[in-house]
Each structure stands twice: as structure tokens, then as C-alpha cells.
What we know:
The chain is of the alpha+beta class. Helices cover 23% and strands 45% of the residues. The chain has helices at residues 2-13, 16-25; strands spanning 26-29, 36-41, 46-50, 56-61, 65-67, 74-82, 85-93. The strands form 2 sheets. Strands 4-3-6-7 form a 4-stranded antiparallel sheet. It has a 3-stranded antiparallel sheet with strand order 1-2-5.
Amino acid sequence: xxxxxxxxxxxxxxxxxxxxxxxxxxxxxxxxxxxxxxxxxxxxxxxxxxxxxxxxxxxxxxxxxxxxxxxxxxxxxxxxxxxxxxxxxxxxxx
Length: 94
């Protein structure tokens, strides 16, 4: 029936574990960002910046302030990974 369809879609779109992980352990701001991006994370982490075509343009560990003022304006992906999991989000550079 309708309920099982809704439930499946919900599970696919919002995996609870990564949702909790995202809100619980890792935040980054501001987004859009002009100069400095700040990462807040309780655990050790690695951070990568990708262009939309998947090229890594920045890679570091436990760096909580990232100056991206030299990047071209546009859209990027940020990937933050800890031993508990990882998030990948779009970042807009102004």
C-alpha cells in the first residue's frame, strides 16, 4: 500500500545514521563562503575539496579554518571524514 512506498522512499533518501552523524559531529559554515570556511568537529577528521568534475584541489587533516579566497567563484564539494563516517556536501564560493 501507500505506507510501504513512503517508508522505502524515506529510508533511501534519509539514511538515519548519516543524518545523525552530520548533525551530531560535523558542521561547517558559512555556506556560501567568501574567504574562510570553518569546520566544527569533535573527532579527528580529514577534509577534501573537490571541483564538480571530481578533481581534489585541497586536502588536509584537522584543519578547522580553511581559506578558500583563492578559489574561483562557483560550486565545489567538501568531504569531511572521521572514523565514524563521512559527509559530502556542496559548497558555494562567492
